[in-house]
């Protein structure tokens, strides 16, 4: 840069202010921040030395303004007010409560017991279809039977598990979460759980 570097940068700054600001808005995403960054950059230029050696003055101005914006953003980081902290304590905890955990463990135990009581082929078919995601055709090939028989076995396994879980509920006879009776059918409890979410 020839001549007085500071004078040249100031001239460029005033002549191309709108262009510089538009470029900063694209980079920073905020017209207000871009304007403040340009103002800070202009003030910073007065304190700098060696401005006669600047080869690309517009790029230099943009770089200075971007750095000023970063400094401004770092300086405006704030702490939460007491009211904002109090509001955070009011937020509901999404984790399940103790009664939900107990009910889930009970349901899991009943399901595991029902699976264990199934005949071996039905247990394998149910587990492979529902957990491993095998198709009826793959299961039929594994067991050397028709897909129709696999479908019947899968349905029988589902029905057996439902009856087994209902029997355990009838024996337990207590009340579960949200007024659901453990003796209610699994279908009824599922409807109540879905209604709670709505």
Secondary structure topology:
Blueprint: H1 5-15, H2 17-28, H3 31-45, H4 57-75, H5 82-90, H6 98-117, H7 120-130, H8 136-143, H9 147-172, H10 186-197
Molecular structure report:
This protein has helices at 5-15, 17-28, 31-45, 57-75, 82-90, 98-117, 120-130, 136-143, 147-172, 186-197. By secondary structure, the chain is mostly helical. It is elongated, with a radius of gyration of 35 Å. The chain starts with a helix and ends with a helix.
Provide a brief overview of the structure.
With 198 residues, the protein is mainly alpha-helical.
Radius of gyration: 35 Å
Percentage beta strand: under 5%
Q: What is the H-and-E element order?
A: HHHHHHHHHH
The CA-CA distance between the termini, in Å, is 69 Å
Largest sheet report: none
Structural class of the secondary elements?
mainly alpha
The low-confidence runs, each spanning 5 or more residues with pLDDT under 50, are: 175-183, 190-198
Number of helices in the DSSP assignment: 10
Helix fraction, binned, reads over 70%
Q: Based on DSSP secondary structure assignment, what is the total number of beta strands? A: 0
Shape, per Cα inertia axes = elongated
Mean pLDDT: 79
């Amino acid at each position: 840069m020839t001549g007085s570097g500071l004078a040249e940068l100031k001239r460029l700054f005033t002549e191309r202010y709108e262009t510089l600001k538009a470029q900063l808005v694209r980079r920073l995403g905020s017209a207000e921040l871009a304007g403040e960054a340009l103002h800070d950059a202009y003030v910073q230029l007065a304190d700098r030395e060696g401005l006669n050696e600047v080869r690309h003055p517009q790029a230099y101005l943009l770089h200075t303004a971007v750095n000023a914006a970063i400094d401004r953003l770092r300086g405006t980081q704030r702490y939460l007010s007491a009211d904002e902290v109090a509001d955070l304590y009011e937020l509901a905890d999404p984790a399940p409560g103790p009664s939900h955990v107990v009910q889930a463990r009970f349901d899991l135990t009943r399901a595991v017991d029902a699976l264990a009581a199934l005949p071996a082929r039905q247990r394998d078919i149910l587990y492979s279809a529902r957990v491993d995601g095998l198709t009826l055709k793959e299961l039929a090939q594994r067991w050397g039977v028709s897909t129709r028989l696999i479908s019947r076995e899968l349905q029988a396994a589902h029905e057996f598990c439902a009856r087994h879980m209902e029997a355990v509920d009838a024996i337990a006879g207590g009340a579960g979460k949200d007024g659901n009776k453990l003796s209610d059918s699994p279908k009824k409890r599922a409807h109540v759980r879905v209604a709670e979410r709505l």
